[in-house]
Every structure is written in C-alpha cells, then in structure tokens.
Write a structure and sequence with these properties.
It contains 6 helices and 18 strands. The chain is of the alpha+beta class and 339 residues long. It is globular, with a radius of gyration of 22 Å. Bound molecules: FE2/S2 (inorganic) cluster (FES) and fe (ii) ion.
Length: 339
C-alpha cells in the first residue's frame, strides 16, 4: 500500500465491467473495496450486479455462475438466484433455503461501461451519472490496468495543468474558462498543442486540442476532445475503481466521430473511423495515460500541497472532492490549498 492511501475510500459510482465485454449470457467477476461481486447480463439483456459469494457453500459466482434466462445458477451445486438475488431453486429439486440470498448492487449503464454505487458508510446514491446520445459515435473501446494508487490522485490529473507539459509533452497549455462545481460534477476547460505521430503526412504535425472535462465523483471522468483542424471529436473516459488493498482498477475508454466540417476525419465513413482510426486512437490514449504511472505508483498524498502559480485549480478540486468522504473528510485536506 502506497502513501496515497492515507486517503479514505470515497463514495461514488465505480466501474465494474465494460458493456463490450458483457454480451447476453456473460458472467464476470469484479471487486469494489474488497467486496467480491458478480456482474452478468440476462437473456433479456438486463445487467445485474450482486454479491459474488454463493450463500450455499461459498463458490464465487463471478467464476462459476451461469445465466439461465433471467436467473443466475451456481455451478457448484446448482443453486439458482433470481434478479433480486433470492435463491429460487436448489440443484436437487428441494425447497430453497429462504435465507439464501445474494445482495443486489445498483447498476448504471453509461459511457459504454457498467457502474455500481459504493459508499463505505452504506449510503444510497444522491446523484447519478449522465447518459449520452451515442448516435454517430464509434463503439467504446477500452483498456484497463491495476495500479497501487488512489482514485482521487487519478481524477486530480484532469485539473493538474502543470503536469501536461512536463509529463505528456504538451505545449501552450492554458485554461480557457474557470472551473465550475455543480454538485458531484466538476467541469474544467483547457486547451493545448501536441504532436500526433503519423499525421505529419497531412500537414498536421502539431495539433491544437480543446478539452472540456467533467469529473463525476472520483470514479469517473469524461473528457470531451475537439481537434477542429482535423474535424475530429472524441469522448475519453477515465474510470477508476478502488478494488481493495490500496489497489485500483483504471479503465481508459474512447469513442469518436467526425464533426460537421469538411476536414479529414469528418469526411471519413463510419466504418473507416471504427476500423482505421479507433485502434490508433485508443493506443495513443493508453500511451498518454501510461506516462503518468511512474508518478501515481510512487507518489504520496500531500494534504497541504505547496502550490504555485502555473498549477491548475488543484485546491478548488480538493475542496470539491471532500464531499465524497462524509465525516472521513478530515484526512483529505485541501481547505487551505490555493488556487
Ligand atoms: S456453493 Fe453455490 S450451489 Fe453450492
Ligand atoms: Fe496525466
């Protein structure tokens, strides 16, 4: 466990699966803050998340469960659970034990992912994640990693304007609007220039990138990317799940489209965006995310950071982030941090 885990676990919506990896009948394991979960999609297409330990003799349903219609059956001795988690059949045609029940977890399908709500204090959600109109956008592509760091440090990356040039090599980084906090959503806007490998042939060696990022709690950041010179738009998702033991699951996902201009990407047919552009875009996105790893893996959390002109709105971000810790927020700091 790194120093980053001097922070408590926040509440929020946390990703437990990618929809692309969850076709009808699929069963997947997941973990949130040490809680073992099963994620599955029923025959009717409904996604369910539930506690994973079979109450019979403890098999992990994420590894041995099988979808049967709208139910989930344990492979070990055949106990079968309905969508509410109630055991409705044994494997022996005997009466199901009335106390045999899986605990259902909340499900939110958006941004090409499945999220579930988690609060260590046990509260119910007081906010939700938005749904986007996916029409005209490419299929979400995702990649993920396990890292020994904290969700707050990953989400802080979106407001840490100073690191964009040092770590990622971006130029002319500047905030284009002041940040806005609206309940569980913090919005930030900035732009920069960057080199994009492979685009020199069309005269676009350095591109101006405009960013509008929405940080939804500490588990989900949606980054709207515009490259007007190419007629290119993307939605970049950063989804972070505290899995337990000081580890996180970090998922980067991307969906893209051309804009309404006559620029190169806008003129590409959708199939070319899906097959030619999307693989390179997720690879470039993953490359940029991986540039942060050495810092995330080895840093400690400074609750009273010595901030300087040139930093992004880190103090503002940390004051906003305190809402996700309830009465555990004293460990978070940031009250005295400026800007
Ligand atoms: S452990 Fe699941 S049916 Fe026995
Ligand atoms: Fe970064």
């Amino acid at each position: 466990m790194t120093e980053a885990w001097s922070l408590p676990v926040p509440k929020g919506w946390f990703r437990v699966a990618s929809l692309r990896d969850l076709p009808v009948g699929a069963v997947r394991p997941a973990r949130v803050d040490g809680h073992e979960l099963v994620v599955y999609r029923s025959a009717a297409g409904e996604v369910h998340v539930a506690s994973a330990w079979c109450p019979h003799l403890g098999a992990h349903l994420g590894h041995c469960g099988k979808v049967e219609g709208e139910r989930l059956r344990c492979g070990f001795h055949g106990m079968c659970f309905d969508r509410e988690g109630q055991c409705v059949e044994t494997g022996y045609n005997t009466r199901p034990p009335p106390t045999s029940k899986l605990r259902p977890w909340l499900v939110r399908e958006t941004f090409g992912q499945v999220f579930t709500w988690y609060d260590p204090a046990g509260s119910t959600p007081d906010w939700s994640l938005p749904t986007l109109d996916d029409a005209g956008w490419s299929t979400w592509r995702a990649t993920s990693w396990q890292l020994p760091t904290h969700p707050q440090d990953i989400a802080e990356n979106s407001v840490d304007l100073g690191h964009f040039s040092w770590v990622h090599g971006y130029d002319a980084v500047r905030a284009t609007r002041p940040p806005e906090a609206n309940g569980a959503c913090l919005s930030v806007w900035y732009e920069f220039e960057r080199a994009v490998p492979g685009l020199t042939s069309i005269g676009a060696a350095r591109l101006k990138i405009e960013i509008a990022a929405e940080v939804w709690g500490l588990g989900c950041t949606l980054v709207d990317v515009t490259v007007a010179s190419l007629g290119f738009r993307a939605r970049n998702l950063v989804a972070v799940t505290p899995t337990g033991g000081g580890e996180i699951d970090l998922c980067a996902a991307i969906s893209m489209r051309g804009d309404d201009s006559w620029r190169p990407v806008a003129l590409m047919p959708q199939v070319a965006i899906e097959t030619l552009l999307a693989p390179g875009a997720i690879a470039l996105y993953a490359h940029d995310v991986e540039q942060d790893f050495v810092y995330w893996k080895n840093k400690r959390y400074e609750s009273r950071p010595a901030l300087a002109d040139g930093d992004g709105p880190i103090g503002r971000y940390r004051r906003w982030a305190r809402q996700f810790y309830g009465d555990r927020a004293t460990a978070v700091g940031g009250d005295d941090a400026t800007p």
